[in-house]
Amino acid sequence: MHLLKKFVLTLLLLLTIISLSRAAPPSYLLTKKDYLYDTFFKVEATDLMDLDYSQVVVLGRDYTERRISVQLLSWSEGDLVSHWESPNLINEGPVMMTTGRPLPTGEQFIIILTQNHLYLYTYQNERIILRSQIYHTLSPYELSAADLNGDGIDELLVVRLGKRLAKYDEKVVDVYRLEGEELLKVGTSPLLGNIRCLTGGDLDGDGFAELV
């Protein structure tokens, strides 16, 4: 009888532990409800604030408040805290975002590309500042940044319409370099189909980023 009671108590304890482990999220998983936006379009990690660890840059939309913006978040005491939010870009859509080092200074930037403007934000004197605002007529679909020629300066990779077909659009990737307050086109790809996303990185270790 004593052994039976001991077995039953042990079984109940195990079932309780299993139930709690299933109900509670793992310690490494941060879960939030109704957080920042209704929809997140893009998330990137970068050390914009020079803290020796990454912050999170997010692009999202709040449909109720009619707001599209970019925010910079950092990890603090077990939570993500917003340090900065861009102006509302709802009237400038579509909106694209990436991070990179597109200038010879080597500074890290949040790069925002809208229908007619390119915005460069950087961290200076403990705050986010708008370094450049450049007008353009690119009609972009997507944006990334990568150092394609190995000079330490990121080129801007912009997806644009290449050819409109009956059932889908063929898109191309144009490569731009920032020269002062101007975008200088330095190359373009062949037609690559209906591109939905892209990135760049040095996949083979030769010092030159590949376009993915």
Protein traits:
212 residues, mainly beta, Methylamine Dehydrogenase, Chain H, four-stranded antiparallel β-sheet, 14 strands, 10% helix
Report on the structure:
The radius of gyration is 23 Å and the shape is globular. It contains 1 helix and 14 strands. The strands form 4 sheets. The chain has a 4-stranded antiparallel beta sheet, with no helix packed on it. The protein has a single domain (34-211), classed as Methylamine Dehydrogenase, Chain H. With 212 residues, the chain is mainly β. The longest helix is centred in the N-terminal third of the chain and has 22 residues, at 2-23. 10% of the residues lie in helices and 46% in strands. It starts with a helix and ends with a strand.
Architecture blueprint of SSEs:
Blueprint: H1 2-23, E1 39-46, E2 55-62, E3 67-76, E4 79-85, E5 96-100, E6 109-113, E7 117-124, E8 127-135, E9 142-146, E10 155-164, E11 169-179, E12 182-188, E13 200-201, E14 210-211
Antiparallel strand pairs: 1-2, 2-3, 3-4, 5-6, 6-7, 7-8, 9-10, 10-11, 11-12, 13-14
CATH structural class: Mainly Beta
Low-confidence stretches: none
The tally of helices reads 1
Would you report the number of β strands? Answer: 14
* Average predicted local confidence, pLDDT: 86
State the separation between the terminal residues, measured CA to CA: 67 Å
- What is the count of distinct domains? 1
